[in-house]
Amino acid sequence: MRLLTHNMLSSNIKGVTNGFPLLIEAEKVVEKPVDFNPDFLRNIFPKIDWKALVAAARAVGYGELPDTADAAMLESDDFLRHLHHALLQLHLEEGALVCPETGRRFPVNKGIPNMLLHEDEV
């Protein structure tokens, strides 16, 4: 699961009011090469929750993103390459996503998060 995907997931357990961002418990993280596309990064940047992305990147061992970012930084090739690496090349292969409110763990196996809810959580 890419961190781009993580940035768009939340816990939908009944009664949860703050299910975003899901915390990451990483057991295995892999890097997969992806062609660099600065136009894609510039277009997706406004949709990214930056604080959640930085926390997720650090949870998987990547500390190259600044604490804050703004649109002016999109002119920096160095910034774009770090963003590209974090969003698209880092993959959570094994581990779990954890609801920040309930502590419910959603397993991630072979890069696929299992977000299915139990009957009592719907």
UniProtKB/TrEMBL annotation:
InterPro entries referenced in this protein's UniProt entry, alphabetically: Trm112, Trm112-like
GO terms, molecular function: methyltransferase activity; protein heterodimerization activity
Pfam families noted in UniProt: Trm112p (PF03966)
CDD domains, per database record: Trm112-like (cd21089)
UniProt keyword Methyltransferase present: yes
GO BP, sorted A to Z: rRNA (guanine-N7)-methylation; tRNA methylation
Keyword Methyltransferase: yes
Keywords of this entry: Methyltransferase, Transferase
Family, similarity comment: Belongs to the TRM112 family.
Subunit note: Interacts with TRM9.
Protein name (database record): Multifunctional methyltransferase subunit TRM112-like protein
